[in-house]
Amino acid sequence: MRIVLKLLFPLLILPFAGCLSAGFGGASLTPASAGVQALDGGLVGQSDAAKSFSSAARAKALEAEFQALQYGSAGQAVQWSVDGYSGEVVPTQLYRVGSQDCRGYSHTFKGQAQPVKAVGTACKTTNGLWKPVT
Fold first, then answer.
1. Taking the CA of residue 79 as centre, how many other CA atoms within 13 Å lie in the half-sphere pointing to its CB?
2. Is 95 left (phi over 0), alpha (psi -120 to 50) or beta?
3. With helix as H, strand as E and coil as C, how does 82-121 read?
4. pLDDT of the residue at 39
């Protein structure tokens, strides 16, 4: 009987898999999209050079900021490119301020004009998301 249930359980739960991943009330944010959203525009949103970027380029640039902060090794660039725009985000070493993890990062934007480099710092909030502090 146990073997039969183990074999049938995936078939019984499969029709509801979408509900479990998306939530019953609609789509939920993935950890990565929540992290990108928490950056509140990041350095991309603060840069005059990025104002001319397409929305896809701004989204890709912000995603690169999150990837660099969350998973990047100090000094290793996270590169992005879309719609003729590109850039790279380079995080610094992780450090602590009180009980918060923080790290600096730079973002070099390349578009139709000369490359522009922006520098900032982000710290993790109590819910584990990166928030710019400069």
1. 3
2. beta
3. ECCEEEEEEECCCEEECCEEEEEEEEEEECCCCCEEEEEE
4. 78
CA angle 26/32/36 to nearest 5° reads 100
Cα gap 108→95, rounded to integer Å: 22
What does the pLDDT read at residue 52?
A: 79
Q: Is the C-alpha dihedral spanning 88, 61, 56, 35 positive or negative?
A: positive
Phi, psi of 100 (to 5 degrees): -100, 140
Neighbours of 121 (CB within 10 A): 14
Give the H or E element holding residue 62.
helix 55-71
Residue 20 token pair: 């479990």
Please state, in angstroms and rounded to a whole number, the distance separating the CA atoms of residues 63 and 20.
25
Strand partners, 5: none
pLDDT for the residue 27? 41
The Cβ-side half-sphere exposure at 110, using a 13 Å CA radius, reads 9
